[in-house]
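Lab manual, section 2.4: Encoding a predicted structure.

Procedure: take the sequence of the chain (274 residues), apply the prediction step described in section 2.3, and record the output as structure tokens. A sample record is shown.
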Amino acid sequence: MKKLFALGMAAMMALSLAACGSSASSSAAASSAAEGATSEGATAENAGSDKTWVIATDTVFKPFEYTDASGNFVGIDVDIVAAIAEDQGFQYEMKSLGWDSAIAACQAGQADGMIAGASITDERKESGWIFSDGYYTATQTMTVAADSDITGFEDLAGKNVAVKIGTQGAAYAESLKDQYGFTITSFEDSPTMYQAVLGGQCVACFEDTPIMQASIKDGNLALKVLEDTANEGGDYGFAIFNADNQELIDMFNAGLANIKANGKYDEILAKYLG
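Recorded output:
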């Protein structure tokens, strides 16, 4: 009996140790996972869910997204997403893909949402874009070389202007070209478009006003924004392309309202726009 009792106690102790070991291992794994699960605006401790949302953006659309002198990807859009993620407690990964590639990634399900200074338009809504509330209001305007003698749309007759593919600046130029008799050349990104004007291939370009102002100032570009050439403008929105990701839009809208109320939104704008 003593022998049986001793064997039984040994077995119970073994089971107890095994259970403790399993519990410790699970806790360590959970702790390691929590420490490793990082994002650019939220931690595992305050995350609303285990999902890490993939958010696509442009590569160069200063001051909304761009790489600074230290090699960090920064900008108004970048900081707004970080602030909203922190406020709402969700994890995300931001991918700098370029305008067209960001749209394609969302449409293919390789990204959950997109923020890239995208203007909210009926045309985009009809083609499948699902927008958040507007987070910034921007106008589009015309810019020329600093030494150009072009003073307005009337001087564009018979000349060529530059636009960035798929932007409201491009749409604005298209709306004016027949009336003022100019042609359009499209470019994949803003820096290449600016170089076309600086190099004389095009006499002007159309771009969002804050983008042009920031690019000229920070890049010391020999360009000037012409007065009285801006349109009425419109709102930028965060976008998804799959209704199953509505949760992300809802969190964005809620977080946007909160950071506007607590002053964080104004701090972000002041950081980049002065």
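Check your result against the sample. The chain has nine helices and twelve strands.
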